[in-house]
């Protein structure tokens, strides 16, 4: 049996920035088939900064907690800074993610990158 940190449980039970965003500037979608988890991130971008970010994640407690923490860490960052978020940084912010659940953090990072790519493609036209 794995034990989760207080931070993981808090972000699972009280997720931050959860829900769909109407009129998002970008949307990222990622499906983690091996663990039956689906991630959606919605971004609002102003002058190259993430001014708002929301998520909808269907999956285990670590997947929801990782998505919630990702929104907290990415909000306010430049897009280039957000792409450099590190799995260990997110794990540490969550009080330590069990190794067997690190896929949750990697999937959240992949979803954020998909949203950023979506935004950059829309800007290029």
Quickly list its features.
125 residues; alpha+beta; Sufe protein. Chain: A; 3 strands
Overview of the structural elements:
The chain has helices spanning 6-13, 61-74, 79-82, 87-93, 102-124, and strands at residues 26-32, 37-46, 49-58. With 125 residues, it is an alpha+beta fold. The protein has one domain (6-116): Sufe protein. Chain: A (Alpha-Beta Complex), CATH 3.90.1010. Strands 1-2-3 form a 3-stranded antiparallel sheet. Helix 1 (6-13) packs across helix 2 (61-74) and helix 2 (61-74) crosses helix 5. The N and C termini lie far apart (49 Å).
What spatial order of strands do you see in the largest sheet? 1-2-3
Number of strands: 3
Q: Helix share of residues?
A: 40-55%
Please trace the helix and strand order, writing H or E for each element: HEEEHHHH
Q: Tell me the span between the first and last alpha carbons.
A: 49 Å
Please tell me the overall pLDDT: 95
Taken from the alpha-carbon principal axes, the silhouette is globular
Q: Which architecture per CATH?
A: Alpha-Beta Complex
CATH topology: Sufe protein. Chain: A
CATH class assignment: Alpha Beta
Major sheet description: 3 strands, antiparallel
In short:
The chain is an alpha+beta fold and about 120 residues long. The protein has a single domain, classed as Sufe protein. Chain: A.
Write the layout of secondary structure elements.
Blueprint: H1 6-13, E1 26-32, E2 37-46, E3 49-58, H2 61-74, H3 79-82, H4 87-93, H5 102-124
Antiparallel strand pairs: 1-2, 2-3
Helix pairs in contact: 1-2, 2-5
């Amino acid at each position: 049996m794995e034990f989760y940190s207080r931070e993981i449980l808090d972000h699972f039970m009280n997720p931050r920035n959860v829900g769909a965003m109407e009129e998002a500037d970008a949307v990222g979608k990622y499906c983690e088939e091996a663990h039956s988890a689906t991630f959606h991130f919605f971004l609002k971008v102003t002058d190259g900064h993430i001014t708002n970010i929301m998520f909808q994640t269907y999956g285990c407690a670590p997947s929801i907690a990782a998505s919630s923490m990702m929104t907290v860490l990415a909000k306010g960052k430049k897009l280039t800074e957000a792409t450099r978020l590190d799995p260990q940084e997110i794990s540490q912010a969550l009080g330590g993610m069990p190794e067997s659940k690190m896929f949750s953090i990697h999937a959240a990072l992949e979803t954020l990158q998909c949203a950023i790519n979506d935004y950059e493609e829309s800007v290029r036209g």
